[in-house]
Amino acid sequence: MATSLANRASSSNQTLNFLRYSFNLLRNFSTSSNSAPSSAQTPSATTTPSKKSKRRKKKNLFEVAQFLPNWGLGYHLAKSHWTSVSYEITKINLYKDGRHGKAWGIAYKDGLPVAAAKKISGVHKRCWKYLPGLKNLNQTLVDSPSLTTTEAAAQGEVQSA
């Protein structure tokens, strides 16, 4: 019994050695046919794998808005290839998976509203980005009183006195 097991082990070792030698032989033939000689390669280049830069997958409107407070309502989003055009999100209807749905917003050009709230087209395309500066700009315009209202208040005080 022990001798038969030893014979099997030696025969399996022989087949593994044969396969190993045949693969090494094939590897030598495939590398020798290259135009660059093997001596030209540096040892550090062969030992370290080349690091390829990974492309980051761009995001659709819902994948960008999910990280904003209240799913981006009131925030400005734009397509990455647009210049000076954005949408302020006013309403979002999500499907169950959270990555698809419908969105409505107010179009802005150069920081000024262009049209009333309308359905945003192309929300599933992977080219959306968040514009952080525009939210603060519009919020400060709403929060701070304008000059016309302060002038009207001053005129009212002068008339009452």
Automatic annotation (TrEMBL):
Pfam families: MRP-S34 (PF16053). GO terms for cellular component: mitochondrion. One of its GO terms (molecular function) is structural constituent of ribosome. Residues 32-50 have a biased composition (Low complexity). Residues 32-58 are annotated as: Disordered. This is Mitochondrial ribosomal protein S34. It comes from Linum tenue.
